[in-house]
What we know:
The chain has 470 residues and is an alpha+beta fold. It is 34% helix and 27% strand. Residues 11-17, 37-40, 53-54, 146-148, 186-188, 192, 211, 213, 259, 312, 333-335, 339, 341, 344-348, 350 line the site of flavin-adenine dinucleotide.
Amino acid sequence: MPTDTADIAIIGGGIAGLVAASAIAKHVSSRIRVHVFEQSRQASFGESTGGAIGLYANGLAVLRDIDNELLETVCSQGLPYANRRWRRHDGTEIAVGDETLLVPRNDDNGSFDPRLQPLGIRRWRFLSALLDHTKKHANIEVHFEKRIAQDGIQTVTETNGSSSIQIHKLKFKDGTEFTARLVLGADGVKSQVRAFLFPETKQPEYTGVTTLMAVARIPPTTDPSEPEPLSRGIHFISSRTSKFHACMYPLPNDEINVQIYIPTPENPETWGKLDADEMKAEAETMVAKLRADGWNETFVQPWLKPDSVIRVGLRAREPLEKWSKGGTMVLLGDAAHPPVPYIGQGAMQAIEDAGVLALLIKHLCPVKPTGKDTDGPLDWDLSHFETVTRLYEQIRVERCTQVLKSSHVLGEMNQRRADSWFYNLQYEWSIWMQVLAGGNLPIMLKGVYYSYAEEVDKAITGAGSDNIAV
Ligand SMILES: Cc1cc2nc3c(=O)[nH]c(=O)nc-3n(C[C@H](O)[C@H](O)[C@H](O)COP(=O)(O)OP(=O)(O)OC[C@H]3O[C@@H](n4cnc5c(N)ncnc54)[C@H](O)[C@@H]3O)c2cc1C
């Protein structure tokens, strides 16, 4: 079978992979041939299934820098949260945060870009918007049903006179082969690229918590006894007695996304939509449990007739200190740093990774036009790529570790609330105080107040001019 050649091969066409492809086309060059290899069927990208995802300013800003139109499409497919509310399972309120405070302000006049306000969006709509955007770039090709395994990856060094370059040979499950000069491993929590680079790292371990995620259509309430309809903001609901805690947020078309976190000793391997019978059984069990524990009917409602239910056994992994081995293969997104989802920053970190990588490549490995003809053959010198990976790790590893650690902390605190009424009281009081003082929960600020472009500028300046290819 003939072997095709890519300048960049991105393994995994999820959030990290698709954003990285568009960011490279925008920031580095529209002449680099970027091939994205995704194991799923193309049709699965347009299926109105699955759950939803919350997007925050730090990730939305990367999309804006790729193309305003991309940001606007994403905003039009999602729904911004008016506020952030912490409530007890019986419906009583603990605190209300202002979501506009989660959008970085302009230093000069305090104004902000309202498109960066946190929003909820169906995951399939978000992925479709990212995929459609790649079609604007003739140099990006997304291949579906291309699964690679660890043993399908091989790296060789080719020498030409005094210079040598790394070439990556990729062989997919369907037998097709590609070679690439650069490989980005964006293949998620069970990454095969990570297994190839770091075969010694441990597999992700089940955290003891399972999430049931459902999307249901709920027309806005006209019940005057419900002071804050779910359709307005993101809600965090907790129960001290059942040990469940939940997150609910509104979506367009009167849909509500609900994630309920349930301590479960066994390890469900599922990540996927349940079939109709499983979904019905899970939803009925959930309704019975919530009612028995005295949950307010507003929070029970999404489980009465959900459109889709997904079960996810949350897994965690020790953070890696290196995301590459110094060559021309690097990890990004969940492949490098799988999150637990209590702070809604996993995908945002993946998007930041993509933005940082693209800008570093732009500065350190620019594509030069050949002679007068800017459309001539690609002259792409990757000799500074080691500096790209060094600065990439310098910018990203600590940042991701810190943000994603705060997600673990938040999850553990929520679980502990069920163990002690005193701890729960302290926790509620602390949320109330922090929101009263700061307008929103400060732990959220660490994630959203971040400029990936400034971090790249600082790192490049700090690295000195010797490292900059001009
Ligand atoms: C319940 C839950 C709720 C969450 N909510 C949020 C939220 O609100 N906000 C947020 O920011 N984050 C959230 N996250 C985290 C977020 O989903 C992930 O961090 C994000 O999806 C990571 O993107 P990724 O592209 O790195 O990985 P993925 O989204 O996993 O994409 C990886 C892609 O690679 C493909 N792939 C895998 N293996 C191979 C292979 N061998 N060959 C080819 N292709 C392959 C997969 O099919 C997939 O398309 C949540 C996570 C969970 C579990």
